Amino acid sequence: MSKRKKIVVKIGSSLLANSDKLTLRYAFMNGLMSDLAQLQREGYDIILTSSGSVALGLNMVGKRPEDAGILDKQAAAACGQPLLMNAYRQVASEHGMGVAQMLVTVGDMEERRRFLNIKNTMLRLFENDILPIINENDSVATHDLRVGDNDRLSAKVAQMVQADLLVILTSVEGLYDRDPSDPDAKFISEIEDVSEHLESTTGISALGSGGMLTKMQAANMAQNAGVETIIAEGIIERPLSSVLKNERRYTRCLVTGETASPLKVWLSNRLQVAGTLVIPNAVAAAVAEGRCGISRSDIFSIQGDFTKGDVLHVYDEGGTEIARGLTNFSSEETMLMARNLDTPVENVIGYKTRSDVIAVENILVLRENHLPLDAPEHDPKFVTPV
Ligand SMILES: Nc1ncnc2c1ncn2[C@@H]1O[C@H](COP(=O)(O)OP(=O)(O)O)[C@@H](O)[C@H]1O
Ligand SMILES: N[C@@H](CCC(=O)OP(=O)(O)O)C(=O)O
Predict the structure, then answer these.
(1) Taking every annotated instance into account, which residue ranges of this chain make up the domain PUA (predicted)?
(2) What's the chain's Rg over C-alpha atoms?
(3) I want to staple 214 with a disulfide (CB 3.0 to 4.6 A). Which of 122, 149, 330, 367 is the partner?
(4) pTM here?
(5) Pocket test for ligand 2, best of 60, 136, 166, 212 (most atoms within 8 A of CB)
(6) Between β-strands 5-11 and 44-50, what pairing exists: parallel, antiparallel or unpaired?
(7) Cβ(298) – ligand 2 distance below 6 Å
């Protein structure tokens, strides 16, 4: 793999579109492309995760940001994405740089083969000094299958290419201890544990979708992948190199702890839940220490329709997510096996196989600094098996 430094840069909607007219902020795009082209010449491989398709497409569907519903936004994204890419292509070519578009959904990032394919495409683009510009494919992604914000999407991209740095450029200088519209808000220049800052991150700009909350979640995902995150203001002159050269203030989210293997990082940063298992606290403690996998007799309840090879989220009885792992069985098979503990597995499911539902080597124990998903809701289809 190339020794060039890899940087993933995320650009928020408010940097690319005027909030009143919903038209392109050409000066920002020009400053950005000039800076990236120079950094590319200096030896950086850069990936851009760019928002802006919805904001730039709203005029075409006759809507304002505050009254657009999800279908309006999906239609606006379909209109705005070609406008956005056309602008990037023209401006980048003025600075001698080629660009490529990659539109992805959460399913693309979380299905292992598609994930690896996206990564290989990006690495091939780097070989030709082409700037990959990524956005979520908003007009095809359904509510359940959306990342929903480009902050977390950019963290997934950073994890995918094992980036050296993730830089999130936005409308404020970085994280404050409360909404920066409060005159007493204090700037925070360095963070280790993002969970300490979740309470202070409500409020979004007129065009933004996730606010600081999804930036904190993204920083946490990047931390788990061993990637440092910088949150900085998207200024017009040298928006990225001024950060890399430490010329202005920003918020730095440090990497703490050891980085897991790429497969385990991929497991830890999933947003899509195929299914969940709830296990007794005693077993959960053993799983958390890496002492065992999960067998059919360990299951309190099963939720979701999953198939062999899907990633399951494992909760203890108190609703704390303790681990994730690849299941050896479908939800129907797991249910049958758990309901018929006295019958050999092969007689229950009709073929001979190992009986671990999740093998110990396919389990990722979630570290304390991981931001968990919410506890699963009760699913009437799959209840306690015994
Ligand atoms: N604690 C905080 N620190 C910094 N910004 C905050 C905080 N809480 C809320 N915000 C708001 O988050 C906004 C940035 O998020 P967002 O609007 O989603 O931007 P983007 O479009 O760049 O993703 C800022 O406009 C800011 O007002
Ligand atoms: N995919 C959407 C962007 C969603 C999003 O994360 O927006 P933002 O919070 O402005 O970065 C778009 O292109 O408009």
Answers:
(1) 275-358
(2) 22
(3) 149
(4) 0.85
(5) 136
(6) parallel
(7) no
